[in-house]
Specification:
The chain is of the alpha+beta class. The chain is built from three helices and three strands, in the order ββααβα. A three-stranded mixed beta sheet has the order 1-2-3.
Length: 111
């Protein structure tokens, strides 16, 4: 992917996982791309546009007779994992704040 000279790939794409069909004819490539949703869509479209060239390079690099057809997807699982981690962090911070307010010395009540 480093050899692709497409300005739409400015968001540092990373391959997170690849699922290959049992007959090795299709490879679903899951990607994470830094940037806004618009930049992510542009990068995925650029990868989809260059899938044929990447398939040819893959065939030569791996000395395959036939390389799988490459299908690029944005990895939604990573987004979900990040959202869960963010929620856990928020719960931890709220618990710490609640613990501090409970642990703080209470002033005596005077009537």
């Amino acid at each position: 992917m480093r050899e692709l000279n497409d300005p739409r790939l400015a968001g540092m794409p990373s391959i997170t996982r690849v699922k290959v069909s049992p007959d090795l004819s299709i490879a679903d490539v899951y990607m994470t791309i830094m940037g806004t949703p618009g930049q992510q869509n542009a990068a995925i479209n650029a990868l989809r546009h260059s899938a044929g060239m990447l398939r040819l390079k893959l065939t030569k690099q791996m000395t395959l007779r036939v390389a799988p057809f490459l299908k690029f997807h944005i990895d939604e699982n990573l987004k979900k994992e990040m959202a869960v981690l963010q929620l856990l962090q928020q719960v931890r911070e709220e618990a710490e704040q609640a613990g501090k307010s409970l642990d703080a010395p209470q002033s005596p009540v005077t009537d």
